[in-house]
Amino acid sequence: MKLGVLLFNLGGPETLADVRPFLFNLFSDPEIVRLPIRAMQKPLAWLIATARHKKSSGYYAQIGGGSPLRRITEEQAAALRGELDRRGFEANIYVGMRYWRPDAEEAVDQIVRDGVEELILLPLYPQFSVSTTGSSFKDFEALIGKRNGLQRIRRHYIRQWHTHKTYIEALSLQIAEEIEKFPDPNPTRVHLLFSAHSVPQSYIERGDPYLQHIEETVRLVSEELGGLSPVHLSFQSKVGPVKWLEPSTDAKLRELASQGVEQVLAIPISFVSDHIETLYELDILYKKLADEIDVKVYRRVPALNCNPTFIKALADIVCENLK
To answer: I need a labelling partner for 97 at 20 to 30 A (CA). Which of 13, 221, 275, 297 fits?
Structure first.
């Protein structure tokens, strides 16, 4: 069987000129902005993109003028292929971005041309949400009826992998390494601030398991580290006026500072690649806040990117789903 693995990710603008069309694509997704009248989706997306693109462009300008997400995801794809090769699995690895290039349609066209017979659909979102994995899978499913040859491919959908042992190990190892870099590396004196991308509270109330998955990942990582460090969970990247998951990362930082906490290690828990949320929000925005409110030491755990243990985790997931 000719094997393929399709990695799903969000995508991001690669230049400042890409910011506005990227935002339009993002807010055109009904899993991101839910409207009672579907015909209003694109007009509203245009309004939001028009209103936000200058401000967002300013953020991207501060991290080099664009998102590195495509480059990193393609590097992860190459590393995964190499790891699978070492295990005796020959596989083509494809990248499908939800809101930017290369999109799932481009990936599917190449998958069909390559004659793939068995396909692993692997979202680079460890925790399931309708707004991430759910949206990517819906987008892929919509392509099945449009592409001759896609229907015959045997497909394996990986909905979540937030408790996978090797993934937990990869996160824990990076956290332990960062704790050692603090002026006082005693784990009991380093507060672990897990920061996840927020979602509207209404999603959770309708049954989205995202919050539960995040909490399970945090618990397992804390246990892997021996449960020595104080653990906190917060949420970032809120957009719009509806109620989102709380506490926000900035509010939690203020709370810790008010309690006299001096050492904080921020951990991007729902992100496996560097992008605007890590490079701008965690590294610039919240670092500035930490300095202003007298958190003496604020560090951030690197995104997993191409960490060898993380690539091993992805390969483990692929191989386990081929059994």
So the answer is: 221
Concatenate the DSSP letters of all residues of 19-83 into one string.
HHHHHHHHHT-TTTS--SSGGGHHHHHHHHHHHHHHHHHHHHHHTTSS--HHHHHHHHHHHHHHH
Query: How many folded domains does the chain comprise?
Result: 1
CA 92 to the chain's CA centroid: 22
Number of helices and strands in the chain (H, E): 12, 8
Cα–Cα distance for residue pair 179/299, rounded to 1 Å: 9
**Cα angle value 89/304/103 (rounded, 5°):** 65
Residue with tokens 């002026």: 183
The verdict on residue 92 lying in a domain is no
Helix (H) or strand (E) holding 320: helix 308-320
Domain around 200: 165-300
Phi, psi (rounded to 5 degrees) for 298: -125, 120
CA 193 to each of CA 101, 216, 286, 294: distance values in angstroms, whole numbers, following the listed order = 32, 15, 12, 16
The count of other CB atoms within 10 Å of the CB of residue 27 is: 22
Angle separating helix axes 69-86 and 308-320, nearest 10 degrees: 60
In a domain, 261, yes or no: yes
Sheet holding 191-197, edge to edge: 231-236, 191-197, 263-268, 297-300
SS3 (DSSP) at 266: strand
pLDDT digits (tens, 9 = 90+) for 225-266: 999 999 999 999 998 778 999 999 999 999 999 999 999 999
What is d(CA 160, CA 205) in angstroms, rounded to the nearest whole number? 19
Encode pLDDT of 141-162 as tens digits.
999 888 888 889 999 999 999 9
165 CB-near residues (< 8 Å, 6+ apart): none
CA distance 114 to 234: 43
User: Which residues are 3's β-sheet partners?
Assistant: 91, 118
In a domain? residue 115: no
Residues 244, 298, 192, 313: is their CA dihedral positive or negative? positive
* Residue 150 is assigned to a structural domain of this protein: no
